[in-house]
Amino acid sequence: MHQRSLSRTLLTKVLSVYFILTFIVTLAQIGAEYFNTKRYINSELATLQQTFSGSLTRAIWELNTQQALVIADGLLAIPAVEGIIVRDDTGTVITQLGRHVDISQRHGSELVREGIQLTEQQSGLFGYTFPLIFEFSGRATQVGDVTLFSSRAIVIDRIKIGIFFLIGNAMLKTTFLIMLFLVAFRNYLTEPLNELTQQIETLEMDHLEGIRIASNQSKRSTELSVMATAFNRLIRRVQDYKSELESTQKELLLSNEKLDQHNLVLEQEVARKTSGLSKAMMDLQQQKQQLEIKQQSLKEEIERRRHIEDALRNKQSELESLVDDLKQTQDRLVQSEKMAALGGLVAGITHEVNTPVGIGVTATSFLSEKIQALQKAYQDKTLSPRNLEQFIAEASETACLLESNLNRASDLIASFKQIAVDQTSEAIRTIQLSTYLQEIIRSLLPHFKKTKHQIEVNCPKDLQLTCPAGAISQIFTNLLMNSLIHGFEDMEQGEIRITVLDEGDDIDIRFSDNGKGLNDEQLEKLFHPFFTTKRGAGGSGLGTHITYNLVRQTLKGSIDVNSEPGKGLHYHIRFPKKLDT
Fold first, then answer.
1. 558 φ, ψ to 5°?
2. pLDDT tens digits, 23-43
């Protein structure tokens, strides 16, 4: 009859239960990782509303379709975004890029009024729809909505490394436990049982002298060691009975008694020495087995660390690729911010130039009417000296009015032209800083015109710089507009002071305002990208970040800032007067 191994049966049952539990736990961990990552991507899509809604809303409001397309391309470049749909206030699609679904089946031509998450579709796409609200003169107008799409593939791609790690970890632990169970069952159950069985099968009742079951478990309190001890005790008892019988016989043979006693002593001494030698051999065998187990554990640890090192290298490569993508996206956002600032400058200058041009048109029309009246009086021969003198006086006043207003328009256009060219160019040229600061302030006067805020400039008249003029224009435009929008919020009359000091090869600029200032937490994040105190109200959070990069990288200088709530904001900027061309 075929005998089934007890140790193999126990090992099979234990490992079966462990495999099932490990498989269920691993599946649960993978499922939890997938849903957590998907929820995190949904939160990223919702966060993008705060980052891009302001600039995209302004682009649609100003009917700047090209800028809206550029912003949509920038959004599509974000790793978490796989598709985008932008609609205007009529529900018409302006652009749809990447993978997407037909949202008209869900919303029709109606615009969404608040942020809505799209559930996962059969195609694996899910997303987030949010409205575009433009605030103007205290009124909020919805100009469209945006739908951002992500997909199941992006979620799986993000958790791929984690899945591999979970599976590898489960396989590693399973392999280790299998080997551990195999060694333990072999050492503590299979081999001792085989040894006992073999010794019992070879036992001969006619030759009990010196027979003893030697077990590796003799030093451990186990059932096998107890069984071996009991069997040896039984053998010794039988031997004792046999010895007693032999002693009785030996009493009849007095001549052989001493010889038998000597033989017994010698046999006991040999047995004792043999037992000591067996004990030493067993200790050596156990030490060898322990060394083998430790060596195997060391090999497994080395292999595990090698896998972890490979995973870290792969993760580092992915992070480097992600950093490159973020840098490209940041460059696009910076260019978009510059174009948005230039658009605001154009709108302000256009509004400001309309006044002198309108006065010039009115004066020209008035002068034309007076010339026609003079010509008619001359033709009718009713022209008197008094009428001619009155015409000359009115014509002179009109000419003076035309000249002053046209000069004013010319100055505004000249300032705008130079500032606009500088803001879109990185060319290095020589400028007179005092005059250039006045041109920058003049180009921003439309924004300060309806306020009582004052700007004071203290700069040497003959101070010249050789540098990218666009960087100077962008820096002071950002600082002045930040003071107006953020620092002077809810203030009737603010003061801005710009002090420039000539210090040999360098210049030292102190820019300060008496606005509401920043607390320590806001001050620490001031130069971080996308940090703004006007989140959701048109602020992109790139102004101070662009200023910081222009001073440190473009002008090769330094910039420091300090502030306290209620005590304004103070910048300290320092850079060389001449940069290598």
1. -135, 155
2. 888 888 888 888 888 888 888
Q: What is the pTM of this model?
A: 0.37
Contacts with 76 (C-beta within 8 Å, 6 or more apart), sequence order: 82, 83, 84, 97, 98
E strand or H helix at 477 = helix 469-482
Distance of CA 189 to the CA centre of its chain: 55
What span, in angstroms and rounded, lies between the C-alpha atoms of 527 and 525?
6
Q: Which residues pair with 353 in a beta bridge?
A: none
Q: Say if residue 219's pLDDT is above 50.
A: no
- The conformation of residue 120, written as its DSSP 8-state character, comes to P
What's the CA gap between 286 and 127, in Å, rounded? 63
Centroid of chain to Cα 389: 78
Could you give the 3-state DSSP secondary structure of residue 466? Answer: strand
**Region for 506 from its dihedrals, namely left if φ exceeds 0, alpha if ψ lies in -120 to 50, beta otherwise:** beta
pLDDT tens, residue by residue, 72-107: 888 888 888 888 888 887 778 888 888 878 777 676
Q: Is the CA virtual torsion 209, 215, 220, 224 positive or negative?
A: negative
Q: Give one DSSP letter per residue of 129-187, joined into a string.
A: EEEEEEEETTEEEEEEEEEEEEEHHHHHHHHHHHHHHHHHHHHHHHHHHHHHHHHHHII
* Residue partners of 95: CB distance under 8 A and separation at least 6: 68, 69, 72, 84, 85, 86
Q: How confident is the model at residue 3 (pLDDT cuts 50, 70, 90)?
A: low
